[in-house]
Inverse folding.
């Protein structure tokens, strides 16, 4: 039976989890281009703190930066957008985004 204003209201049990407007997500972001030696990792840490996103930023041997992001979906998406340009001296060529299950990270570290 479809819902109508005259339909009886539904009561939710108190043991049901609350419905949240934003889900916690985790993304592994691989950033290519001139991204090492331009303060990409530290700038990423500062930006992540601004967005309340946890994770890490590490240089990879192949010249890319690997960024792990965990937090509410809109904040993580904002961080991914930031990674597409990075700090002012960076020259980002490519950003690869990989979905992963959240691990409950706290804080943001750079390696």
């Amino acid at each position: 039976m479809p819902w109508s204003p005259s339909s009886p209201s539904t009561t939710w049990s108190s043991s049901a989890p609350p419905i949240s407007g934003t889900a916690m997500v985790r993304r592994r972001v691989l950033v290519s281009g001139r991204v090492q030696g331009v303060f990409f990792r530290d700038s990423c840490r500062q930006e992540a703190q601004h967005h309340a996103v946890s994770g890490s930023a590490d240089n990879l041997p192949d010249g890319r930066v690997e960024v792990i992001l965990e937090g509410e979906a809109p904040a993580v998406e904002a961080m991914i957008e930031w990674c597409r340009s990075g700090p002012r001296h960076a020259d980002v060529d490519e950003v690869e985004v990989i979905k992963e299950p959240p691990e409950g990270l706290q804080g943001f570290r750079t390696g």
Summary: The chain has one domain: 24-102. Strands lie at 24-34, 54-59, 65-72, 91-100, 108-110. Helices lie at 40-50, 73-83. Residues 24-102 form a domain with the Alpha-Beta Plaits fold (CATH 3.30.70.100).
